[in-house]
Amino acid sequence: MPELGPNQSLIDIPGSRNALTTPALVLDLDAFERNLTTHAKLCGESGLRLRPHAKTHKCSEIAKRQIAAGAVGVCCATLHEATVMVEAGISGVLITSPVVGAAKVNRLVALNKKADKLKLVADNSINVSDLSDTAGRESTELDLLIDIDIGMQRTGVHAADEIVRLARLADDSPNLNYRGVQAYSGRVQHIEDYGSREKEYGEQLDHLQKCLDALADAQLKPSIITGGGTGTHAIDRSRKIFTEHQTGSYIFMDVEYNAVELVAGDTSPFATSLFMQCSVVSNNADGFVTIDGGYKCFATDGPKPEVSTDSLPGADYDRFGDEHGKIVIADQSQKPVIGTPVTLITPHCDPTINLHNYLHCVRGDKLVDIWAIDARGVL
Ligand SMILES: Cc1ncc(COP(=O)(O)O)c(C=O)c1O
Fold this sequence. Notes:
This protein has 379 residues and is an alpha/beta fold. Helices cover 30% and strands 21% of the residues.
């Protein structure tokens, strides 16, 4: 049996959720499974294949469940994530960031030989030539998508004529199979108001459509058009440009995404399934207690974690150092004793996951399984 951390002996013991050694990432399996099936159904109804992004969870057990729910594979942000997923037997991995430099390209080509239907993106002609040459030397073929920048400017090519040129190079290169395009826009995902998001992202999709028309005119019609995230999935489903979707955070839902109006004028189709369980370690001060979750426990790029413990209504989290957080108590008569578990919604799930080794899977008050976050850490 693999080593699954200090809580392994609590699996299947009634009430074990409240006895976890903390801080511990907790996955509410009922909510997680509902998110999985809801999104699979929404994508299926729109004729959209799903290749969810594994950068969110970095966990091959979750990737397997996404595929069991109908996904055609998973996306990975890094070669390391892709390596872990391939070695866990996941097929249909798409690497969504350029793989650049001889060392990484060599590793990629070696991985491709072991993988089933591995794909990657590129946005540069030098990189395309490197990929083709290295694949040729190793007698293998790589499936390549051209990365289109529709407005974020992080990676990708923006101008339609340059996209056509790069797609032509990929299509003409020996040892490369031109499979299609990627167009992901990150910042718009978190525009909270649906109408404002739809307006800004809609203009980006108009540009994507022009690029697709130019590719079709050049006899380079992509068979895969991939992109989108949790914030744009409703817009992507109605615009029907993509053939497949890269949604990531929908499985967990964090504080950032809970503030986003995902569907116009309606409640979110997804519920929070990921929580951080911490414990009160000191309660001597007036007005607050100290818990064992600080900068090393929660991502600090976004909002603060939100307290979700029923017995602490109105309580607020404040950052309090590397290992500690401050829980400001609304009602002093409810000040918890040391050892009390405090549950919080994670601020931004992706970088929070990357700080932890294990997901503690619970049903109700019982720990029922522990999954390794096996692709965490190394970039
Ligand atoms: C390329 C790419 N695709 C998809 C996603 C998933 O987005 P989300 O977590 O907003 O669903 C991300 C997230 O950062 C991403 O970088």
